[in-house]
Amino acid sequence: MEPIRIMPCLDMKDGRVVKGVHFVDLREAGDPVEHARFYQAEGANELAMLDIAATLENRKTRLEWVKNVAAVISIPLTVGGGISSLEDIELVLNAGASKVSINTAAVKNPELVREAARTFGPASITVAIDARRNPAQPSGFELVVSGGKQPIGKDAIAWAARCQDLGAGCLLPTSMDGDGTRQGFDIEFTRAVSQAVQIPVVASGGAGTLEDFHRAVSEGGAKIVLAASVFHFRILSIREVKDYLRSKGYAVR
User: Fold this and answer.
1) Residue 119 to residue 98: CA distance in whole angstroms
2) How do beta strands 16-21 and 5-13 pair?
3) What does the DSSP assignment read for 99-145?
4) Chain CA centroid to CA 123, Å
């Protein structure tokens, strides 16, 4: 079995790390470079950095933020926010990212995923999938774009399967219902995505306890577990999470 990976996430706004609940009510959570350095030293396997306001502000990812963080770590860095073209992807990768995460742009232009995977390799392309519960959709989950502001009437699980077909190397599904709540990952949503694809799935949104991380893997089928609040505010440490997963019999990178 592929070892489980732990991925802290830096949500960025105005040059600082922030964290909200249900994608709103943001609060300050520190300096991204300090966090990045700390997380690598703590044993993080990967790091995510999402420019959460880029799409809403109709601008590109702040490359200086990418460069600053990439300069202090050697673990893989996934960068998302405001990435909508092959040129954007190239600039972000050249700034030091190992992977890019595309979301709204992929929904608007699915061929971007195919072209990006062909140009830069599937391993460099993650598609982030934000969703909320909606019983009107076949799977019960509706795709949401523009930083959680715009539901678009499409089934999130069907979109996940299509992203795999288009060549994405990884999927990062986040449930708006669980984001920032520390009430646990949306296991039903994570599992639905995991069962629809063969590529790695990142569990995201709602981690609060060690058992939440275990359930994301054992019940949700996640290969990578992402969290923000519990790490930023030092509620849990990466070492604690890894030790707990090992105690449950999982190989952890």
Assistant:
1) 14
2) antiparallel
3) EEEE-HHHHH-THHHHHHHHHH-GGGEEEEEEEEE-TTSTTSEEEEE
4) 14
Please check whether residue 145 is in contact with residue 104, taking contact to mean a CB–CB distance below 8 angstroms. yes
CA distance 157 to 142: 8
- What are the Cα distances from residue 131, in Å, to 7, 48, 145, 155, 170? 20, 19, 8, 9, 17
48 neighbors 227 (Cβ within 8 angstroms) = no
| CA 16 to the chain's CA centroid | 18
Question: So what's the pLDDT on residue 178?
Answer: 59
What's the predicted TM-score (pTM) here? 0.91
Average pLDDT per consecutive 10 residues, the chain (253 residues; last block may be shorter): 93 80 60 95 96 77 93 97 94 98 95 98 97 95 83 95 98 78 86 98 93 97 95 94 98 94
pLDDT of res. 229: 87
Question: Is 11 in the active site?
Answer: yes
Give the model's pLDDT for residue 179.
56
CB atoms within 10 A of CB 46: 22
Is residue 155 among the annotated active site residues? no
Residue from 14, 31, 88, 130 carrying the catalytic annotation: 130
Pairing verdict, β 125-133 and 224-227: unpaired
- Radius of gyration of the chain from Cα atoms? 16
Of 69, 84, 76, 70, the C-alpha closest to 15 is: 69
Choose the catalytic residue: 11, 88, 179, 212: 11
Q: Do 105 and 128 touch, CB atoms closer than 8 A?
A: no
Distance of CA 237 to the CA centre of its chain: 19
CATH 3.20.20.70 is the classification of domain 5-247: yes
Q: Compute the distance between CA of residue 216 and CA of residue 164 in angstroms, rounded to an integer.
A: 20
What whole-number distance in Å separates Cα of residue 216 and Cα of residue 193? 12
